[in-house]
Design goal:
This protein is α/β, with parallel strands linked by helices. The protein folds into 2 domains: 238 residues, P-loop containing nucleotide triphosphate hydrolases (Rossmann fold, 3-Layer(aba) Sandwich), CATH 3.40.50.300; 74 residues, ACT domain (Alpha-Beta Plaits), CATH 3.30.70.260. The protein is built from 11 helices and 14 strands.
Length: 331
Amino acid sequence: MVEIKNLTKVYGNHRAVDDLTITVEEGQIYGFLGPNGAGKSTTMNIMTGCLAATSGSVKINGFDILTQPMEAKKCIGYLPEQPPLYMDMTPREYLTFVCGLKGIKGKAVKEEVLRVAQMTQIEDHLDRLIKHLSKGYKQRVGIAQAVLGDPKLVILDEPTVGLDPKQITEIRELIRELGKNRTVILSSHILTEVNTVCDKIMIIRKGKLVACDTPDNLTRTMLGEAALTLTVDPCGKKLSSLSQLEGVLSFEQTPSETDAGCVELTITHAPETDIRRAVFQSLCALGCVILSMHEVRHTLEDIFLELTASEAQPAEEAAADEAPAAPAENA
């Protein structure tokens, strides 16, 4: 669906995007992550044709965004972080206007406005002024304009920013629905949102891709080890034999601070190995009592921090990454 090859964007002496190569497969929801100033906004604006690259290429559904912009843009729906809404219009008027920009004409306009209104659940608010709508419904109107024309690719930049918990839940469910029959690229700083909604995650740092995989694969492989913690009553038995179990990397035993006579065990192991059953069976064979067992899982936040750890970026460099918002004709 999307092929980005050797993409570079330079602002003065700053490389916002640095020889970036990404392939986005059709029919999946991709999370697009990176710290402030990493190049996310610049990359998305180049993908949507709002910004020219210094070098490299971007193809959308086989069409080059530079040499075949009309064909490529017909495949794209884009919601910038600040939705391009006209506050003195109603959603019906605004969506009709965007239909004109996207080349939708005649009787198809009314049908298309109704289709996206039903999809985003704003049909009961089509004739209210946009400025009188809640933040959540404004976001829905923004998403509605992005899916006008039924594009194969929808790009959403921070779609849940500023929403309350109920609105966030509703927008996430809407994103899942969008992903059932189209490709979605979702940029967000809310890592739990990306983890629960996305099929794959792309992480960039200083304009370069540092990871692209499923959330589960990233969790298993990126940080190198996992851990199991237990509270055990050893009943006078030595527990050092646990260190010999297959997959165990290290074994630590300390007195429990809360349960007299018991010990706290921390057993680190290879992330692809599940040692819980082996540990349970070994402790039972020794006649020990297990009071608690907890598997420590690395979170997407741990992985994000590990992959993007670097010296703080100068403020002027971070500012340089804030590419111009999409003009109205690219809505």
